[in-house]
Specification:
With 369 residues, the chain is α/β, with parallel strands linked by helices. It is built from 14 helices and 13 strands. It folds into 2 domains: 180 residues, 3-Layer(aba) Sandwich (Rossmann fold); 172 residues, Glycogen Phosphorylase B (Rossmann fold).
Length: 369
Amino acid sequence: MNILHLSAVKKWGGGEHQIENLIRELQTIEHSVDNYVLCVKNSEFHEILKQTNFQVLYAPLAVKLDLRYVFKMIRVCRKHKIDLIHIHDPTALTLSVMATKLAKLPPFIFSKKTSFPIKNRRQTLYKYNHPKIKRILCVSEMTKKIASERITDDSKLVTVYHGTSRNKNIKPLFTLREKFNIPEGKIIVGTIANHIRAKDLETWIEIVDHVIKKMNQQNFHFIQIGSFTNRTPAYLDKIEERGLNKFITFTGFMQDAAAFIPQFDISLLTSQSEGLPQFIYESFYYKVPMVSTNVGGIPEIISDGENGLLSNPFEAESLANKLIALSADKVLQQKFAENSVKKLEENYTTGKMAEKTLAEYKKVLYGKS
């Protein structure tokens, strides 16, 4: 079975981490599967894949619909006799549909990793309902429900939760306290999120302002790890205006960012839209208690008061108050950590994700799991 994984994403994020995890697990559980990855040349994802033993291919993507990527996809399918194409993002899906106009391609599986609704536009509906797509793997039940509103044949929709691996040996290159001069005793609140609209870092800054200025809780330091974008200057201006600089560190992109999670006292997520972020699974693994918004599939794995604290999106004051309350309750922190890691080990490992994904591959190709 020869599988081609397609990624047209230039930044490194949870979705790319999931691809890496999936291929690594597939190599372990099914030696008869050959995995190839076609990524964007010189992207962050490409640079990270170079450090693996994967069969990595690449193509330029100077514009969203770069035909060089399309032609490379077709050549790879022919050269390596690809049986199935696993598409991991919407841009890659668009490019794949374009490729069907130029060549005969194997069947598609598409991973829907966000809870964004599929737009009710003719071209978009055509793309997501393309006959080559035999399965749509949804990252959560909420993602599946939202997708079903626009997918004509909802029998194609299958929920496959992601997760994290249980054996990690990656060590961080430095300690956050030493690198960023964070005094001992300061509570480190950590977030891993690229600077995109869905992560709602405007609310994140409002939370810091409420904790530090309005509640006068200056024993906190907030670490934010993630790739900068054109939104970053506005965030920095807002932090400067509020006088919050000494309480906040924006690190930018850091490879193996999850390895720093054990240095967090609490993990914080302020997303306004999500599928199911990798950051939550990693925080579970490292037994770091979490405060999060309740969007997308997050309530499927975090039960408020049982293994984390949840609030509605955009409610900075509520999130800040829950953060302060959790920081003061060591017993609750321990409860959340223990309940979360138990839930992770029972339900959300990359091994389980790979097994379920492989079963769908076999159903598509052979009609059986």
